[in-house]
Amino acid sequence: MRIAIAGCLHESNTFVGFWTDRRCFEQGSLCWGDDLLVEWATAHHEIAGFLDVVLAAGAEPVPVGMAWATPGGPVTDTFFEYFCDRLCDTLRRVQPEGLLLALHGAMVTPRYASADTELLARVREAVDIPIAVTLDFHANVTPEMADYADILIAYQTYPHVDQRLCGQRAARLLLAARHEGRQHHTIIVKPPLFIPLLAQETEYPPMRELINLARRLEQRPGILAASVVAGFPYADVPEMGAAVMVVGDGDRASTAAAAEELAVALWERRHRLHVPLCTIPEAVTRAQQSSRLPVVLVDLGDNVGGGSAGDGTALLHELLRQHVRGWIAVFYAPEAVVAAQQAGLGRAVSVRIGGTDPRQGPPLDIQGTVRVLHDGRWEEPDPRHGGRRFYQQGPTAVLQLENDNLLVINSMRTPPFSLGQLTSLGIEPHRYRILVVKAAVAYKAAYAHLAGEIIPVDTPGPTAAQPQCWPQHFPYQRIRRPLFPLDPTATW
Ligand SMILES: [Zn+2]
Predict the structure, then answer these.
(1) Distance 269 CA to ligand 1 centre (A)
(2) Listed residue (62, 123, 119, 53) closest to 96, CA to CA
(3) Is the omega angle on the peptide bond into residue 191 within 30 degrees of 0, that is, cis?
(4) Half-sphere exposure of 304 (CA within 13 A, CB side)
(5) Bridge partners (DSSP) listed for residue 228
(6) d(CA 136, ligand 1 centre) in Å
(7) Contact 406, 400 (CB under 8 A)
(8) Backbone angles phi, psi at 486, to 5 degrees
(9) pLDDT, averaged across the chain
(10) Distance, CA 342 to ligand 1 centroid (Å)?
């Protein structure tokens, strides 16, 4: 039995001022055929999970294609059409007996508010075979996805450390469907709410309670998988928000009842899906006074993994204003890297950083000494959010600043998902007082064991932690209304 394996993953933030084009995918991962195995077969990713199960079952995996880019602005229609055409052409030619497809679920293009749904529709049109789809926990699920895929399941952790397991589950369900000739169906329910990112963390209630309920529902006869999908708030699309998805192979009414129960449990917890934040001055003062080191300052408004530019200066301005000692920060600053390369190791350099998005603070002029120059590549052996093994942040420099501070500047926007981002440069993060991460929750898979104290900071930007509190940053026009918590009195 030949099972096709493919993926296309992008989380599109519609509030940033740049596009995600083919070059962004080439920098991330864009591969066809067996090249897909080189990049992904040993990663902690759903693609590797697909392969684990297909190979163990004695079936033949047919790697088709994979596209992955760092979260950012919407994907261009040009790239989307290219990828869909090549994917569908290959599937038509190969004629597999099943398809395992890894999607993110929050990909937007100018033409398609849910590009994942459009891709699925085209795949379904191209090949009439069982299709199992894995989705990111941040998918903005559309009800139509269930029309095109037989099986839909999502990661159940945030940080996402179960991606490979999720791929394995999807593959097992697909193979069972093939072997036993059973007809699977997925029921999707979407209560009218979105969940701010910090409240989506699955280690803590109320999300933990919901994930546990999903596992209990899976014990019922005929219920094969139940997923809570937290959704991605930084997209102005009709289906922005949370969802539940339940896969069954019994009667549809039983599957629908389980989905309804999970959705009601989510809705009933909506007032608890909220995490308090510090203002920028409060956070920096508290970090200075902390004895639990290192302190991780979480720059929520410039969450690179949520699509932000990675060069917001709002928090850095305050660290400098308060003359804080012993911090490390990573900035996307390709021109500054070139300046550091030209100055050379051990030399003084003046660089300008920031300013891509004026909402996130004015540019900053920084003087430092070039301590490290690096190609920006490293390997991460452990399960980390995003499931990657091979990382690259582009040519990178480390600048030693006054007050024992370190500034890492890179040439490719790279979220802090792996400590290798620092350790590959010879930096020992535990020796510093303050680690600035441009993130929300995902970084914790790499940093939590190291952190003495974590302080989420309410910085401005296109990934501000609570969009309902920053209407000037999030002029939603296409979302469903009413939608909690933007509309606190929304009913369901
Ligand atoms: Zn995600």
Answers:
(1) 21
(2) 62
(3) no
(4) 22
(5) 244
(6) 5
(7) yes
(8) -60, -35
(9) 97
(10) 37
Which residues fall within 8 angstroms of residue 142, CB to CB, at 6 or more apart? 114, 116, 117, 188, 239
Cα 400 to ligand 1 centroid, rounded to whole Å:
33
Q: Long-range contacts of range 177-181, CB-CB < 8 Å, 24 or more positions apart?
A: 177/98, 177/130, 177/132, 177/150, 177/151, 177/249, 178/1, 178/97, 178/98, 178/130
Separation CA 314–CA 303 (nearest Å): 13
Q: How confident is the model at residue 306 (pLDDT cuts 50, 70, 90)?
A: very high
Class of domain 2-272: alpha beta
Nearest to 116 by CA among 96, 86, 136, 93: 136
Q: Which of 487, 435, 465 is nearest to 277 (CA)?
A: 465
> Nearest-CA neighbor of 333 among 479, 438, 486?
438
Q: What is the pLDDT averaged over residues 265-285? A: 96
In this predicted structure, what is the pLDDT of residue 426?
98
Ligand 1 centroid to Cα of residue 51, in Å, is 21
User: What's the pLDDT band for 148 if we cut at 50, 70, 90?
Assistant: very high
125: its two tokens: 């049109």
- Distance (angstroms) between ligand 1 centre and the Cα of 386 equals 7
Q: How many residues does the chain have?
A: 492
Q: pLDDT tens for residues 191-230?
A: 999 999 999 999 999 999 999 999 999 999 999 999 999 9
Q: In terms of C-beta distances under 8 Å and separation of at least 24 residues, what long-range contacts does 464-469 make, across chains too?
A: 464/300, 464/301, 465/196, 465/197, 465/198, 465/275, 465/277, 465/300, 465/301, 465/440, 466/196, 466/274, 466/277, 467/194, 467/196, 467/233, 467/234, 468/196
Q: Are 424 and 374 in contact (CB under 8 A)?
A: yes
Sorted by where each begins, the domain ranges of the chain are 2-272, 280-465
Q: pLDDT tens digits for 325-371?
A: 999 999 999 999 999 999 999 999 999 999 889 899 999 999 999 99
Contact in structure between 72 and 302 (CB atoms under 8 Å): no
The helix (run of H) or strand (run of E) holding residue 145 is: helix 145-148
The rounded distance, in Å, linking the Cα atoms of 278 and 253 is 46
- Residue identified by tokens 């401005």 is 460
Using DSSP's 3-state secondary structure scheme, residue 443 falls into coil
Determine the pLDDT at residue 179.
82
Among 57-71, 314-328, 367-381, 462-476, the least confident range: 462-476
Token pair recorded at residue 441: 């929750």
**Centre of ligand 1 from the C-alpha of residue 372, in Å:** 32
Task: Give the three-state DSSP class for 263.
Answer: helix
- Mean of the pLDDT values across residues 385-410? 96
Both tokens assigned to 117: 């749904």
Distance (angstroms) between ligand 1 centre and the Cα of 324 equals: 32
